[in-house]
Write the structure tokens for this entry.
Amino acid sequence: MSHPTPAPTPASAGTGSRQYDAIVIGGGHNGLVNGAYLAKSGLRTLILERRHLVGGAAITEELMPGFHFTTFSYAVSLLRPDIIHDLDLVRHGYFPLLMPHSFAPADDGGHLILSKDRNVTIQEISRHSRRDADAYDQYGHDMTQVVKAVKPLFDTVPPNLFSGRPEDALALADLAKHLKDLPKRVLHNLVRLLSGSAADFLDDYFESELLKGLLSSSGIIGTKVGPRSQGSGVVLLFHNMGEQDGVFGSWGFHKGGNGGLTQVLARVAQAFGAEIRLEAGVSQVLTSNGRVTGVALADGTELSAPIVVSALDPRRTFLELVEPRELPDDLVESIERYRFQGTSSKVNFALDALPVFGDLDGSQFRGFTNIAPSMDYLERAFDEAKYGWYSSKPYLDCCIQSTIDPDMAPPGKHVMSCFTHYTPYHLKGGDWDVERDRLGDTVQRRLEELFPGFSSLVLRREVVTPLDIERTVGLSEGNIFAGELMSPQLYFFRPAPGWNQYRTPIDGYYQCGSGTHPGGCVTGGPGRLASQQILRDLRRG
Amino acid sequence: MIRTTPFHDRLAPRNATGLWQHWSGHLAAVKYQMDEKFEYFAVRNAAGLIDTSPLYKYRITGPDAEGYLAGVLARDVRSCRDGQAQYTLWCDDAGHVVEDGVVFRHSRDHYLLTSAEPNLAWFADRIGRRRVQIEDVSAQYGSLAVQGPRARRILCGMVPELETLRYFHHTQGTMGGAAVHVSRTGYTGDLGYEVWVESDDASRVFDAVTEAGAGQGVIPVGQAALLMLRIEAGLVLIGVDFHSSRFAETDEQRSTPAELGFGWMFRDVATTDRAFIGRDAIRRELAEGTSRWAMVGLVVDWRDWDERHRAAGLVPPKDEHPVVWEMMLYDDAGERVGYTTSFMYSPALQRHIAMARVRPHLAAVGSRVQLEVTIEHRYQTVTAEVAKPPLFNPPRKTDVPSPASSAPSAAAPSASSAPPTRSSTTTGVPA
């Protein structure tokens, strides 16, 4: 591989004569992964982060002494195994902690626990429906077969449908063969998930409302769909794509929260020689004659590099960091049409003790606590969002991470993270700065209903609305996936038709954020695949 | 009649599985929770309580005790000072290992020796005319291992000396009003201690430890998780990784210390005037390089493993349950060059790992071997690389906080250990 010839140093370069081969904009998990791979390949790499800490939406903050909040994203599953090994994350402290089960409480005092232990799960489901018990095994098996079929697509650069290049034609032929070779049932299930609703898929297996509420909630995470909306199937599939220790759809907490994970990624990137600069927001990507030349920082500093990679979302990558006039109209139009409409919030609590549910001993909280007692509950919560307001009885995906990782809170105390849905970014006739606390009250009231005495345990509350996500992290409209994970915005079309291979129309300017394939969640996939594309292009010269 | 340990009253109600195994005639919990993996994680991330009371414990006393032990134990007990402990072996005349154990030195004339199997006759028969008494005190004491990164801060509230107690040292104190002996030893390869207590006081001590650990993720840990932990820690197990030379049928089943990776115990064997059982044979073996095997760690090539299973249409299994029977090892030419004795998927290391014996020329770190596995009823091989055990070896296992920084705080981030993320101000980005 030949190093690109460094451009002349601008006089204003902040680091003297130091030149970079590549500059990555954004120190979220994808930016860090991308920068680590580039540095590992020998490129002098600079990662620029606007905030005072790396991690983007995957950070852990000590909001009161001893209490560590996963402010935004809060669990791991989808981090690509290749990254763990290629970058030797374990050496730098990668440590995912498994959760023993998921817990679904119901308002009538009932509950359901889906355990890692199959026998426990069968007993638990049988309490609600005997036929659902073995249907659950069938569902797990069918979903695993679909995940196996999709995994190779998930972990490779997708072909470009529109390039006319021979390598894309070959990749498309491979893809067609891969799909053609799938068993009939697997292919059909795949299409049903890609195009249909989570409800339709789950109704084929189950009758228990509590079980369906728990499973279908994976079909709405981060997306403005209800479980009965077409399109929720793909979100359901996406959330089963993760794996831990060889088990698909298995989730855990990283030691120290998701901030613990991004700290590991930062150490890894640095170990490979990447430089990370904090409080270095980029105002503009510099170009000359259709080629990238570097970046200008918010403070006016200009840094030059022949490769610039944006880990920001597609709106910022194409419409804000560069002059849209330098881009083809159809790309600009696609990006303007690209749907963000963030719908998720977080409400985080510091708790004096574990909440109480019936006569359970508290160990039920060692995993996700899923507050969606039925599919109807989710659908009704969605109804309010359709008409521009947040759910009066929201869907909550809670986790008390301190039950798994005692370092997250002082002994006996706890931190509780509540992913909250639906809370549309655009409130009709309202304003998140006004509604923030009311949303916190809504969530707390809901928890009080299920766990009497909850409010008296609250030592501190933090409410993070879609507007706060946008302001703090920079994700447009607060969409946690840097754009919705719906079929029109996936694979061939993420983030735009013809621009799904991490390149941009500007030579040397690349994209590596969650707005690219395979998409959102803490997968690192975009960062990794983008680095492959960049290095391939470099080799071609 | 199966017996129970001194901690049984406390542990039995905590065993939610109803599963017990027999360990030296005692009930020992296989696991307390449905999935032992979470007990494993408790040790690697918080602390686990392991009832190790069924170990055999021998008290060795008398004015000639030091000289006696220096002659029957292969490792020189004279280099162990009062208040220290030593991992040790005893061998036969041919230089084959009889067994391993830990000897705790209280004074020149007072020792405690632990072992997995009964050894009273073997040791008593070798006293001769020396002024030595050996007493089986196995039933008089319970032992509770408290293992994991939180172990120190949980215990040092009760026994402040533990704050600075060094690896393989021991001290006295009280817990729950009962006199205890605490050693910084264990079978997990992590920061940890073993608490030795008179059987009658065991429940009080257990209560005191659980109270001190309340709200910190401390749970009892059964045998299943312990066997995972010890493989990552590279700690050999009799009957699995080696066999007692006393009961082996052939020399093929026997091992020398060097073949088990304990050559380092005998750096002075060429010159020492200490006569100990097996010395001449060990001296000869080390001088002439006649060891048949080298004990190594193996790390399986993850990509190879995944691809071979995927090619067979399978989700690559990542099963943490140890495989404690032999899996064959070959070199690239297909020559048989060794075998694994313990194999597992390590959740902490995210790799399949093994303890294995290879021919000495392949013992160097980085040597490649082919591991035979069965995939869909067909023998296949996957590449594995020789690595130095212990494969999981966090600095916290042996480190001692300096007195200045002895406030309870997490250890510094480091290789193979989970990093604490204290706050958002630790950006991982030093200037």
Q: What stands out?
A: The CA atoms of residues 167 and 511 of chain A lie 20 Å apart. Confidence is low (pLDDT under 50) at residues 1-17 of chain A.
